[in-house]
Design a protein that fits this description.
alpha/beta; 11 helices
């Protein structure tokens, strides 16, 4: 199995496929996702709500790399209850913080930020199979209506059995659905489950499958861009499997921090300075500090 990777490449030229401005935009988005996740974790330590939001720490590269180029009308089926994907779609922070309070209190949520972008996420369901069927239904609607929109469906590693994946992918392939399946690596750095290496099997089930380093935001972005182009063009679904790679010198199974990987890459390519990295996400950091 050959895994897509890019941060390990060397050279100081500016790649036109991923210009420096896009690299900086991606890093800021990753930092903001981490800041919001940490802020929510702090709130949850103080509150005894009915529901708790799961951490997305360690998933920043997977989520930013695959979602940063989604456009109006595209939809996301998330693997967990949360607000990070709404942050990436441009929803205002005040609306997100209000949403966090609603989730904890059990209040019926209203539409986020009526003056902002339309809500992108499909309703969350605990059963992964039901979420996938809903996502495929939305994708089928796009195809039937002749729209070029796509659905990105995030699924946690090991959440769906191999047999169900076989049925889902064969049906998605048969219907040529405009959907991109993204299997998220375990944020805890656990070894890949018995349903791992699905990207190898996806091709046999009719869907192109690609394993990608879960900490390599640039590789994820490039693969996602190719996948979005294919899917919007009517060539059907794509399956991306994010694989957690252990850090050098760390204990077995300890994954690399995607923010650290991105920082090293940006500095090695002279895309930014250490001072710029330190100040990235400053506006959101100040807003969250005010909220506290």
């Amino acid at each position: 199995m050959q895994m897509e990777g890019w941060l390990s490449e060397t050279g100081l030229y500016e790649n036109p496929l991923v210009p420096n401005a896009k690299l900086r935009q991606m890093y800021v988005a990753m930092v903001e996702a981490r800041l919001l996740d940490e802020h929510i974790a702090g709130i949850q330590r103080k509150m005894k709500g009915r529901r708790r939001l799961e951490s997305t720490r360690g998933q920043e590269a997977c989520r930013v790399g695959t979602a940063i180029e989604l456009g109006p009308g595209d939809l996301v089926s998330d693997s967990q209850i949360g607000v990070v994907m709404e942050l990436l779609s441009g929803t205002k922070v005040d609306s997100l913080l209000k949403r966090v309070g609603e989730i904890h209190s059990g209040t019926k949520a209203k539409r986020l930020d009526p003056d902002g972008p339309p809500k992108r996420q499909l309703p969350w369901m605990e059963d992964a199979g039901e979420r996938l069927r809903m996502a495929m239904g939305a994708a089928l609607s796009f195809r039937t209506l002749g729209r070029t929109n796509v659905v990105v469906a995030y699924v946690r590693q090991g959440e769906v059995a191999k047999g169900e994946w076989r049925r889902v992918l064969r049906l998605a392939s048969k219907l040529e659905l405009p959907i991109i399946f993204v299997v998220l690596a375990s944020v805890a750095g656990k070894q890949r489950s018995r349903t791992a290496n699905l990207s190898d099997k996806a091709g046999r089930w009719g869907v192109p499958g690609m394993p990608v380093d879960a900490g390599d935001a640039v590789a994820l972005y490039r693969v996602a861009q190719e996948s979005l182009g294919r899917t919007r063009g009517g060539d059907g679904p794509v399956f991306l499997e994010c694989v957690a790679c252990p850090a050098e010198g760390k204990g077995r199974g300890v994954p690399l921090d995607p923010l650290v990987q991105m920082e090293k890459f940006l500095l090695s390519r002279k895309v930014c300075t250490k001072s710029w990295l330190k100040n990235a996400g400053g506006r959101l950091r100040r807003r969250l500090a005010t909220a506290e």
